[in-house]
Amino acid sequence: MKRYIAAAIVSLIGLADAIYLTVEHVTGQSVRCTIVAGCSEVLSSQYAVVSGVPLAAIGASAYFTVFSLATLAAFGYRVAGMLLTVVVLLMFLVSLWLVYLQAFVIHAFCQFCLLSAAVTTALTVLALSAHRGARLSQTPGSV
Amino acid sequence: MKRILPFLIILVVLGIAVGSAWYLTRVTPGTPSANPAPASQSTANNPQSRPAPIRGIPGAEPAQTLGAANAPVQLEEFGDYQCPPCAAFHPVLEKMHEEFGDKLRITFRNFPLTQSHPHAVAAASSAEAAGLQGKFWEMHDLIYEHQAEWKDKMDVGPIFEGYAKQIGLNIERWKKDVGSEQVAQRVFLDSRRGQTMGVRGTPTVFINGREVPFESLLAPDRLRAVIQSELAASGSR
């Protein structure tokens, strides 16, 4: 349960980060060249939009979903815990792809995107260990 | 109560997330809602509803300008020669200069983003050094118009030297001036002025001291409307 609470708190960091990036995108700031190196290249690239929707907005929705599932799991909703593991693993794979794009395709790193990747990695560790803990507690004879 | 508590927490977080996104959209510099000046004639005619002009500390003097000194509309651009949106804004500004002539005073300020653009200072220095021979705008135009040719090159020195030859500069003097303290000081002072005016990206444009929303910069129609509303406000349309 503690791990689910931790996951909920960590997901809030990702949510705040994704909201900031969404606002930058919507207000056109990401198209501008900025003092912070790398972000304008990454956020104005073709990969920053998926079917007309800013990737950051999709990220914000994903972090909100993770927060909701982690909160429900912390209150004992087992299905939410299972769904959380699936969603977080998907997010982790997407994050790996995005870091690859920054490193080898766009050739620029945006620290806000890297923060998001770090948050997703932390969430993956928390979700997997919480999932494992839940399975162990269900096994007869285990502590 | 315990059954609805997680849903309450989720709802509260959703409210905070949506509320903060809405608030940030309003306060982000350069967006119309954050800085409604000079979007419409009625707004321009009512000085009380407009934010106060931002003054900032002085930049390099004399500044690089086009148009009459006492023009009713004073436009100041903070630009970085290696920044693609600045190059995209360049023809828009040229068009405004052609259309409004002496009613529009254009000032260019250097704001090189050295972290992301390694040639930005070299480009700014090349243009400022040309300015010492009275050909700032000729060099400025060439550097922006040919940005795609040099921005990803390793050594831009010979390219800028080619532009200097093309506009008929005294090359020996220009080369000396590019690395001079005087030119470095001008770039530094412009940049420092931008910092005190809250500039954090390029291009950033102020008209009569008020920041123009970024989305109005790359569309000539929108920038024209902003300039026209300022002219109307000054009574010299």
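qc> Residues 114 and 122 of chain A are 12 Å apart (CA to CA).
qc> done
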